[in-house]
# Entry
Amino acid sequence: MHHSRPLLLLVDLARQTADAITAELAATAETIRTTAEDLPAYTGGTPGQRRPTVVVLGETVPAPVGVVHSLRPHPADLAVAVTASPATRNELATLPLLFSSAAVRRVDGGEAARRMPQVVSELLRQLSHRHMHAAAQAQAQRRLSAGTSIDRQLGERLLGRFLTQAPIGVLMLDGDAVIAWNRRAADMLELTEPESVRRPVTGLFPEEQRTALQRHLSDSGQHRETEPDAVFERVRGDGTSQALHLAVRQVLDTEGRNRTLVLTEDVTDRLHAQRKLAERTGHALLTAEVAAAMTAPGPLDERLRRCVRAATDRLGADRVCIWTLNTRGQLAHAVCAADDAGLPDSSSCRTTQRALVEKVVAAHRPHLDVLPRSGPRASRLTDGPRSFAAFPLVSGGELLGVLSLTTRLALPGSVLTVLENIADQIAVGTQQDRLLNRLSEATRALERPLLPPRLPAMPGFEIAARYAPFSQGLHIGGDFYDAFTTPDGRHVLVLGDVCGKGPDAAAITGLVRHTLWAAAQHTSDPAHVLGLVNNALLRQNAPFCTLAYVVVDTTRAPARLQIASAGHPAPLLRRANGDTAPLEMRGALLGVLDTPHHAVTEVELGPGDTLVLYTDGFTEGAGAANRRDPEDLAATLASLPPAAAPGSAENVATALMDDAHRWWGERLRDDLAVLALTALPGTAAAAQPPDDDTGTSAG
# Structure
């Protein structure tokens, strides 16, 4: 059905805005008020061949970007105006990136009633103009096909006034030969009569593009799935580059002979802008990839390998390498990536690049050997000279290594700038990795004396311990444990938590462990030992400490335990049948009162029974406001199988640690330490003489 007027669809539009548009444009276009669901009935058909239509979307249309996509806006026959609401403003901000302003326009809801009629009117004028232009072109084509013999007509007589004066270049070809052109084509392609008549059109372009151009011209438009056009580049007579958009149309002359009409548009500036945008986008992505790699966890070599791989891919380089300097200033090839598949051969780097890299190390400045850039884009050569660029990796005034690149492409200033930027990122990341390694070594050195090197042997019993600081690597926790045998043959188990973290807490932990061990050498009595620890903390004006102190007498059957608590979470006692309960105990913190009192609880540990000591990370791992009760931990232990074989203490310690990590997950903000002692079933306790080689730790 033919429609003489364009169509205007108002979709879920506010009444005031709809009335304003209708009042202004009712005489220009057919206006229909509809909903988003009914739009397909009005906007179907092939894009570019539909009735000129403008769709106006109101603020209440759900998912407006999706609706715009489904409409398939086309500059020839369908445009969309969208009303933005506060809820959809951020979503609609992507529209200018996806569609040109000739196809999709956005208007804020607060200004819709005032601005929307003007915007819709402008879109209608653009569509009508394009529609009329397409109709005029079709008429000219029909007139051209109905003309007399083509071979005997040149210039204006052949193409007619319309095509001769058109702002787009037009060429007429007989096979591959140019037989006519308009003024615009003559200016673009530097064509003159009679020299250019019957000249092969492929001769106007460089040799490397001629095969593709010939295929483009000979491919029948009837079998194309897309528009029969493409962009080809050439060099003008003055040596400057030029990019031409070529659209091919097949026509017949009056004698039925095939002729080719080529519509030519100079898109040099547009192509350069697109390439510049793509280049900047690639450089931004490269910078982001390097930043992500250098801040990611994992070994430094792996992160550096990700950096050189990204640089090779994004910059089209033949090879990118990172060289490092060790503490003695010696240069070593660290990692590299090449543009070919598989692992790169690093021996070629050492052969071809080392001398140049050494210059960078000696001068502390970049070394550039860059090919000149010619044409809109650099061409890759299989042979001949290559560009080389190397930048020092410097952080905090320290030279850490060199980033080097070789390529058969010219390197413009923008590439050199991005290389310098990623060299800075790699240097900072490498320096941070080295500092973290040094801190990790210092942390391990401080942590080493804070825990016993091994647990003592206790025949008839099994002892197990687990310790997990909150932040692995750089964090010195305040939790600690110890286990040793005293001169009188008893065994002492200790688990505590010093207030604070870091080196200060490590120093206090060392003081507490040393005082505990030294005091127990005289007598293991809890009152005596805890009193001396309290005095040592007060003397040093140190932070307080919580402690669970256990003396195990294995000379009796069953074993007798003396347990004292200094403000520590209640120990758990798990009987052989699985029944588990906290031991309610009270006692003052150590390092707070001058004469604290610590009650002693005595329990028997029979075959299959297990005593468990733990720190407050198990009950307050995500902060004091988010607590677990000791009964929760007791329920976890009660669900374990009975202690019928060796490994019971290990199983208990592991189960409690796994349960804590599972319970707190990402919320965990505290250290975890657990110490478990199991009386093995089937083994009667007997008096054990003092043993000097029982793993006693010297605090």
